[in-house]
Amino acid sequence: MKTNNKQISKFLSLILRHNPGKIGLVLDENGWADVNELLEKANKDRHQLTPEILKEVVETNDKKRFAFNDGETKIRANQGHSIKVDLEYTPIEPPEFLYHGTVGKFREAIKKQGLLKMSRHHVHLSEERETATRVGARRGVPIILSIRSGEMYRNGIEFYQSDNGVWLTDTVPPEYIEF
């Protein structure tokens, strides 16, 4: 992704996941924003955003953070919201193991409390250790946690998978985590 596109992606993450009011944008209950309204309000806020640039950012974002509706008239973030939205996920059976990347300073808290969603809607997990390693490395030297997701599911804990492949759950109790 081009450098400017990376900045636009960060801007879209802020607006579509955390603070649409920053530019006066209103999301619907499912997190969708009207594309024309987003473009108009982003440009009033001095962001140089065109329909072509927006489409390029959505299509080239390596984490597939954003999605258009079928007619490309609406856009939303796929997950990671700190604001209330209903992404209409359907519970799905996860693989036997999923992974979570973090850093050592959180190890003791995780051992006691498990993984908590904190200010987000869900705990984010990945199918690949490599993805978890990249996520954990954003904050320092990563440690990778193996999550016994299949066992969690059989014990009644729901899982969802976002459009971009991220696995989501409300919490991961410590007894399902292998350090």
TrEMBL record:
Q: Determine if Transferase is one of this entry's keywords.
A: yes
| A matching Pfam family | PTS_2-RNA
EC assignment: 2.7.1.-
InterPro entries assigned: Ptrans_KptA/Tpt1 (IPR002745), RNA_2'-PTrans_C (IPR042081), RNA_2'-PTrans_KptA (IPR022928), RNA_2'-PTrans_N (IPR042080)
Q: Which UniProt keywords apply?
A: NAD, Transferase
Fetch the SUPFAM superfamilies from UniProt: ADP-ribosylation
Which Gene3D superfamilies has this protein been placed in? 3.20.170.30, RNA 2'-phosphotransferase, Tpt1/KptA family, N-terminal domain (1.10.10.970)
Asked whether the UniProt record includes NAD among its keywords, one would answer: yes
The family line of this record is: Belongs to the KptA/TPT1 family.
Q: Briefly, what is this protein's role?
A: Removes the 2'-phosphate from RNA via an intermediate in which the phosphate is ADP-ribosylated by NAD followed by a presumed transesterification to release the RNA and generate ADP-ribose 1''-2''-cyclic phosphate (APPR>P). May function as an ADP-ribosylase.
Q: Could you identify this protein by its name?
A: Probable RNA 2'-phosphotransferase
Q: Which lineage?
A: Bacteria, Pseudomonadati, Bacteroidota, Flavobacteriia, Flavobacteriales
Gene name tied to this protein: kptA
